[in-house]
């Protein structure tokens, strides 16, 4: 067997000292900026801006030479884990390889340098791109129409809930509650509150799935809908989805599909065929647009035909031989300043076109294969919370390990960093004690997944021999375990606050 | 079938065998038959990435706007982005990371966000800034939620000088939150505030400068907020902010803005960068992430996302916002761009924008059929009233390779309170530091030809 390509234990770092802030590197009078020779005559500020509006003091930002600026951000980048560096099995976040071709797509001058208010006649390429992506996303999810405006998954959730609200209201139907499983992402209940509905939590059963009896007890004519992630956050497919759909539709409610885990079912199943009415997609997960250290993402929302009239507008549509903007008849309005995270949308379309239907199915298959292989491989090391076939991720529990050794999921996660891997998601979903949510993704090789398993084996073995060592992990990272409580207690969120607090 | 999968067929087989399976179908056998997709997705067959890149290039080639001299602004600005900023901001360590859940291996992004927060704090004059929101519109929406929560009230007095699309987004989300948004009209380009605002106002919101480019009287906005016991929310243009009084010095409690001008290309409107800063005592109501400085186990300086108890993954339905993924890469980019500009460079860019705008304004007014829309002062963007519909004039100018501005009416619905009746004749014009004298000459010639038609 060859070595594991996704293990980052050899990541080179020199020195080991901390990096000064750009403000510490700053010296008044130093500068990097070289502006073009301008031939527009400079005017005195006094001629342009009335005294009452003029800045009272000089704005000080940071003053660096270009060489130092490059050194600073390059060194910061060396203190940062990334998908390009190694495996990133952060469950639910789908940290798969981001194809480089998409960087070139996003850099195309004809896409990147287009003003969003330019008339449709001058932006036909962009409109065609948006229409094509909408059609592809509808084909993938089995829905009728979509909005591309939401900038991230949570924005998609809120948009979807407002669509559900508008749908009910248009029928003169005021509803009050939205059901959410106890395993749901935290964004779900937060979005429900912002949409003006109340959350009713539905417990999971002993199989990790929606408890149908509990669901039925909570249903009523005041239920606007249910938000489900399928596969759910435990990585398990809601096998009784048809019954759930029948029950919720039976009281006039709608089904909302949280697309966080759509990557698991590409080409194998479609939310539309499961009975979902509204679907959001996280393009940065499923279609591998880079996560940017925490955004940008993109969270388009697709709907069935009965909700299409409520979609946000304007939407790019086909118009004769070309493309135009149109706002749906009963649109809920805008949900973004312009047309959505357009360059992220372009990247996602490129990914879809490269893969085609078969390629996307292979993506889901290998994501599920890797996750199940890892789950089975670790059965005697860190057992899965639910010992049955999973989809693209599995939730392991360190509950028994904690009882035996005092070593917690957090310690396992921190120790994994020393092994040259990013940690899994920990303590989520909340329904599993000492949860470690592992999503290997399809782009990690068999060798890498095996190396990850071996690393976890070593960590568990060490937990039994020398648990104290694990409490002190990580040791090989740019900084050791970070004091989060101190950060909240002594709040310092800017350089100026650090100076005031005597930290500089 | 191109893919990015490392698995060899033999490995597929071996991994399946380990699970006691012989085909991929078995991995999905527990899905109910009725929802299993037979026949695959209805998509065109996959193609090599170079072929797809060719197609995307062809699409890009059909965006004529990309090659024109751009005088369009109205919330999206065509500034220089130097090679060094593109190079640093496209480092894959920043691009392919995620939210810094493991701070020990995310000090790069965390420290860059700390630096970004410092810069936004200095630009706004307020002590606390978050780690970004989606865009200016999202910042407005979140600021209204913050104000309503802080004041325990639901009425919002919103200047119609705030960008029309942001106001539209605020109205959309108010359907869920129940905020009552009352828009104050623009008269001669500046806000006419209500004289008796009444009870229950959570926030007074004003843009400085407003979307037509005009500088508003923030003393009046502050006085209204004081009289109503409301928070004052000010939407800033962060480039103009280098020249005009800081929002905080006018008494802003919350500052929002669009950070796209700092290193992010026009991008057809996204991804952009929502700026958000608040007074110290509002920090626990802050939406989105915030990075704080702390120590590691060995007493070394370290950075970490803090005050997480506000966030949706912990507080769930009682969270201050539902924001999870935000726009970190744009925030990092803004820190790099501001680092490149430096204090002096930022001021020079703003001065160049303003100088060019004032020169173009004067030259435009010499053209018969072109008049100022309002007499109010402006910084780097202004509105003109034309004797023909702005859309037609802009279409004519485009024939000369000039994107001559944004038709105000294209941003607003019928009867919007920001424009005098009709408003079809109003164009918003922006000048940036990218424009040189020949560009201004070209603008003048194109406008003259278009208006004369």
CATH superfamily of the largest domain in chain B: Type I PLP-dependent aspartate aminotransferase-like (Major domain)
Low-confidence stretches of chain B: none
| Major interchain interface with per-chain residue totals | A-B, 210 and 210 residues
**What structural class should be given to the helix and strand makeup of chain A?**
alpha/beta
Oligomeric state: heterodimer
CATH homologous superfamily annotation of the domain at 103-112 and 119-354 in chain A: Type I PLP-dependent aspartate aminotransferase-like (Major domain)
Please give the share of residues in helix of chain B.
Answer: 25-40%
Shape of chain B: globular
Tell me about this structure.
The complex is a heterodimer of chains A (504) and B (453). Helices cover 37% and strands 11% of the residues of chain A. With 504 residues, chain A is an alpha/beta fold. Chain A has a domain at 103-112 and 119-354: Type I PLP-dependent aspartate aminotransferase-like (Major domain) (Aspartate Aminotransferase, domain 2, 3-Layer(aba) Sandwich). In chain A, the strands form 3 sheets. Chain A has a 7-stranded mixed β-sheet with strand order 1-7-6-5-4-2-3, sandwiched between helices. A 3-stranded antiparallel β-sheet of chain A has the order 10-12-11. In chain A, strand 8 (315-319) and strand 9 form a beta hairpin. In chain A, helix 12 packs across helix 15. Chain A is globular. Chain A starts with 44 loop residues before the first helix and ends with a helix. By secondary structure, chain B is an alpha/beta fold. Chain B has 3 domains: 9-50, no CATH class; 65-79 and 343-452, Aspartate Aminotransferase, domain 1 (Alpha-Beta Complex); 83-335, Aspartate Aminotransferase, domain 2 (3-Layer(aba) Sandwich). Chain B is built from 12 helices and 17 strands. In chain B, the strands form 5 sheets. Chain B has a 7-stranded mixed β-sheet, with helices on both faces. In chain B, strands 13-14-17-16 form a 4-stranded antiparallel β-sheet, covered by helices on one side. Chain B has a two-stranded parallel ribbon with strand order 1-15. In chain B, strand 11 and strand 12 form a beta hairpin. The longest helix of chain B is centred in the last third of the chain and has 38 residues, at 328-365. Chain B is globular and about 80 Å long. The termini of chain B are far apart. The chains are: A alpha/beta (504), B alpha/beta (453). The interface between A and B is large, with 210 and 210 residues.
């Amino acid at each position: 067997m060859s070595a594991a390509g996704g293990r980052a234990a050899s990541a080179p770092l020199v020195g080991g000292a901390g990096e000064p802030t750009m403000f510490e590197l700053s010296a008044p009078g130093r500068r990097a900026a070289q502006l073009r020779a301008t031939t527009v005559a400079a005017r005195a500020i006094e001629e342009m801006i009335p005294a009452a509006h003029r800045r009272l003091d000089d704005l000080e930002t940071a003053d660096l030479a270009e060489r130092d600026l490059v050194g600073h951000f390059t060194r910061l980048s060396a203190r940062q884990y990334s998908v390009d560096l190694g495996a990133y099995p952060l469950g639910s976040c789908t940290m798969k390889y981001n194809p480089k071709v998409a960087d070139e797509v996003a850099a195309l001058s004809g896409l990147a340098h287009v003003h969003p208010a330019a008339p449709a006649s001058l932006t036909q390429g962009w409109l065609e791109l948006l229409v094509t992506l909408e059609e592809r996303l509808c084909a993938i999810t089995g829905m009728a129409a979509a909005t591309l405006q939401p900038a991230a998954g949570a924005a998609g959730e809120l948009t979807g809930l407002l669509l559900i609200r508008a749908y009910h209201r248009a029928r003169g139907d005021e509803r009050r509650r939205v059901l959410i499983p106890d395993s749901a992402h935290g964004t779900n209940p937060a979005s429900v509150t912002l949409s003006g509905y109340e959350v009713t939590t539905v417990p999971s059963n002993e199989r990790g799935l929606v408890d149908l009896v509990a669901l039925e007890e909570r249903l009523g004519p005041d239920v606007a809908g249910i938000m489900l992630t399928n596969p759910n956050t435990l990585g398990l497919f809601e096998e009784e989805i048809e019954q759930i759909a029948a029950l919720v539709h039976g009281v006039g409610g709608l089904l909302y599909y949280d697309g966080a885990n759509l990557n698991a079912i590409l080409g194998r199943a479609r939310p539309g065929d499961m009975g979902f009415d509204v679907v959001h997609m996280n393009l940065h997960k499923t279609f591998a647009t880079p996560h940017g250290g925490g955004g940008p993402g993109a969270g388009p929302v697709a709907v069935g035909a009965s909700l299409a009239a409520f979609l946000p507008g304007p939407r790019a549509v086909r118009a004769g031989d070309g493309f135009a903007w149109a706002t749906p008849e009963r649109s809920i309005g805008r949900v973004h300043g312009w047309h959505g995270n357009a360059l992220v949308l372009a990247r996602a379309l490129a990914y879809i076109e490269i893969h085609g239907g078969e390629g996307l199915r292979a993506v889901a298959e290998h994501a599920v294969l890797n996750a199940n292989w890892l789950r089975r491989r670790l059965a005697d090391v860190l057992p899965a919370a639910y010992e049955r076939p999973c989809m693209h991720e599995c939730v392991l529990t360190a509950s028994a390990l904690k009882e035996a050794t005092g070593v917690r999921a957090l310690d396992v996660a921190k120790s994994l960093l020393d092994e040259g891997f990013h940690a899994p998601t920990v303590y989520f979903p909340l329904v599993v004690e000492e949860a470690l949510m592992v999503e290997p993704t399809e782009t990690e090789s068999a060798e890498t997944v095996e190396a990850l398993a071996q690393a976890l084996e070593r960590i568990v073995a060490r937990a039994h021999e020398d648990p104290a060592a694990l409490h002190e992990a990580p040791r090989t990272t740019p900084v050791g375990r970070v004091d989060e409580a101190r950060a909240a207690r002594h709040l310092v969120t800017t350089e100026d606050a650090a100076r005031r607090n005597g930290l500089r | 079938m191109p893919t990015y999968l490392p698995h060899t067929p033999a490995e597929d087989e071996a991994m399946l065998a380990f699970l006691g399976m012989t085909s991929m179908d078995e991995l999905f056998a527990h899905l109910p038959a009725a929802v299993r997709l037979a026949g695959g997705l209805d998509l065109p067959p996959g193609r090599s990435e170079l072929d797809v890149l060719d197609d995307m290039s062809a699409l890009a080639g059909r965006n004529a706007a990309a090659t024109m001299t751009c005088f369009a602004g109205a919330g999206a600005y065509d500034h220089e982005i130097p090679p060094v900023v593109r190079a640093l901001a496209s480092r894959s360590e920043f691009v392919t990371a995620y939210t810094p859940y493991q701070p020990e291996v995310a000090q790069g992004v965390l420290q860059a966000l700390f630096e970004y927060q410092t810069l936004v704090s200095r630009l706004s004059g307020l002590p606390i800034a978050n780690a970004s929101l989606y865009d200016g519109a999202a910042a407005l929406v979140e600021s209204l939620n913050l104000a309503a929560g802080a004041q325990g009230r639901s009425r919002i007095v919103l200047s119609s000088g705030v960008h029309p699309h942001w106001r539209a987004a605020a109205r959309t989300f108010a359907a869920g939150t129940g905020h009552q948004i009352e828009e104050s009209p623009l008269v001669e380009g500046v806000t006419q505030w209500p004289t008796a605002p009444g009870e229950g106002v959570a926030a007074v919101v004003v843009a400085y400068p407003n979307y037509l480019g005009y500088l508003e009287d923030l003393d009046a906005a502050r006085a209204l907020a004081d009289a109503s016991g409301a928070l004052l929310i000010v939407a800033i243009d962060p480039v103009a902010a280098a020249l005009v009084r800081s929002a905080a010095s006018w008494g802003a409690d919350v500052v929002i803005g669009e950070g796209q001008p700092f290193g992010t290309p026009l991008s057809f409107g996204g991804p952009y960068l929502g700026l958000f800063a608040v007074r110290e005592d509002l920090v626990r109501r802050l939406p989105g992430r915030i990075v704080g400085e702390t120590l590691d186990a060995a007493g070394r300086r370290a950075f970490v996302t803090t005050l997480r108890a506000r966030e949706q993954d912990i507080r769930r339905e009682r969270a201050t916002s539902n924001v999870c993924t935000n726009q970190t890469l744009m925030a990092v980019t803004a820190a790099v761009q501001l680092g490149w500009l430096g204090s002096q460079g930022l001021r020079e860019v703003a001065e160049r924008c303003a100088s060019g705008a004032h020169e173009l304004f004067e030259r435009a007014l010499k053209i018969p059929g072109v008049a100022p829309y309002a007499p109010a002062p402006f910084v780097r963007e202004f509105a003109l009233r034309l004797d023909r519909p702005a859309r037609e004039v802009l279409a004519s100018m485009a024939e000369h390779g000039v994107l001559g501005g944004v038709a105000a009416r294209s941003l607003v619905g019928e009867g919007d309170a920001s424009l005098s009746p009709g408003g079809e004749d109003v164009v918003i014009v922006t000048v940036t530091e990218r424009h040189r004298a020949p560009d201004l000459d070209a603008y003048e010639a194109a406008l003259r030809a278009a208006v004369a038609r």
